[in-house]
Design a protein that fits this description.
With 172 residues, the protein is α+β, with helices and mostly antiparallel strands. The protein has 4 helices and 7 strands, in the order E-H-H-E-E-E-H-E-H-E-E.
Length: 172
C-alpha cells in the first residue's frame, strides 16, 4: 500500500448522511483494540461536527475500501480551542478546527495520515488550524509538530476526556 494508490474524496455538510457509516466503520477499526468509554461517543461527535455548515471531510480510498479520513470545521469566533492559551491578540484569528484524523491500522505508516491532513487544509481560507492530541500518544504529537503545529497548552473539553494538548499551526 502506498499513498499514491490512495484516492482522496472530498465531502461537506450535505454529504454527511452518505458518509456517516463510513466514518463510524473506520473509527471502529482504528480503535478495535483500544476503545474507551469516551471513544464510544464517536457517533455523537460525527453528528456534531457534521452539523456545522462549514464541515469539511476528506476520505481516502484504496480501490473501493475506505482507509482513513480527516474532518473538521471553522471554529466559532471567540470559542477557539487556543484562545485561553495566547495572551497577545492575533492580526487574523480565523481558525479551522481539525477534529479527527484517523487511518485504519493496515494503512498506518504509509503517509496516508499526512496526505489526508494536507488535503483537508490545502485551500482553507482561515489563518490558523488547531487540533487536540491525547497526551497518551506522544508520537502523534511529535508527528503533528513535524507538520508545523506547536503545543500551546492543555484543554479538557469534557469531564471524561483526556486533558488534550492544544496544538496550533499558521496556515499562511
Amino acid at each position: 500500500m502506498t499513498t499514491a494508490a490512495v484516492e482522496l474524496r472530498y465531502y461537506g455538510q450535505d454529504d454527511l448522511s452518505g458518509i456517516r457509516q463510513t466514518l463510524l466503520d473506520i473509527h471502529a477499526d482504528a480503535y478495535a483494540d483500544d476503545m474507551t468509554e469516551f471513544d464510544e461517543r464517536f457517533p455523537w461527535f460525527v453528528d456534531h461536527w457534521g452539523g456545522n455548515p462549514g464541515f469539511s471531510c476528506v476520505i481516502g480510498y484504496d480501490g473501493d475500501e475506505p482507509i482513513g479520513f480527516a474532518y473538521g470545521a471553522p471554529a466559532a469566533p471567540g470559542r477557539e480551542w487556543w484562545r485561553e492559551h495566547l495572551t497577545e491578540p492575533l492580526a487574523d484569528d480565523s481558525t479551522f478546527s481539525v477534529s479527527e484524523l484517523m487511518v485504519r491500522p493496515k494503512w498506518r505508516k504509509t503517509g496516508t495520515a499526512e496526505r489526508l491532513h494536507a488535503a483537508l487544509l490545502v485551500n482553507r481560507p482561515e489563518a490558523l488550524a488547531v487540533l487536540l492530541v491525547d497526551p497518551d500518544h506522544p508520537k502523534v504529537q511529535a508527528l503533528y509538530e513535524t507538520w508545523g503545529y506547536r503545543k500551546i497548552g492543555n484543554r479538557q473539553p469534557f469531564p471524561d476526556s483526556p486533558n488534550f494538548a492544544v496544538m496550533l499551526r499558521d496556515l499562511r
